[in-house]
Amino acid sequence: xxxxxxxxxxxxxxxxxxxxxxxxxxxxxxxxxxxxxxxxxxxxxxxxxxxxxxxxxxxxxxxxxxxxxxxxxxxxxxxxxxxxxxxxxxxxxxxxxxxxxxxxxxxxxxxxxxxxxxxxxxxxxxxxxxxxxxxxx
Length: 137
Prior knowledge:
Blueprint (H helix, E strand, L loop, with lengths): L6 E7 L3 H10 L5 E8 L13 E8 L15 H14 L11 E5 L5 H13 L4 E3 L7
Parallel strand pairs: 1-2, 1-4, 2-3, 4-5
C-alpha cells in the first residue's frame, strides 16, 4: 500500500449494493480498504468488482444475533463492524496522519447508523465522510 493513498471504507445494506458497486467501479485499481455490507440473508450476497487491495465482509442478519434466537435490528451489525474498524485503523488525530480516509456510509433506513455518522462527524470533523442523509439540502 502506498502510505499516502486514500484508505476507503464503504458501508451499506442491501439497498446500497448498486451504489457501492458503482463506487467500486470508479475507484483506482490500487485502491485500499474495506467494504461492509449488512444483508438479511445469503440470497442477497453478490459478487462485487473489488480492487485487489480491498475486501468485502458480508454481515448476515440471519446468522448473527444481539440476543439469543433473535435477528439483530437493522444497522446493528454494520455499526459494530465500523466501530471496530475505526478502532483498529484510524488514528485518534487525523491531522497528524498523512493518509486520507474516505468513508461512504449508507444504511439510510437505520437510526443506529445515523447516530454513528453523527458521532463520527462530530469526533472527526476533518474526515471525508458521506452519508445519504447528510447530502439532502
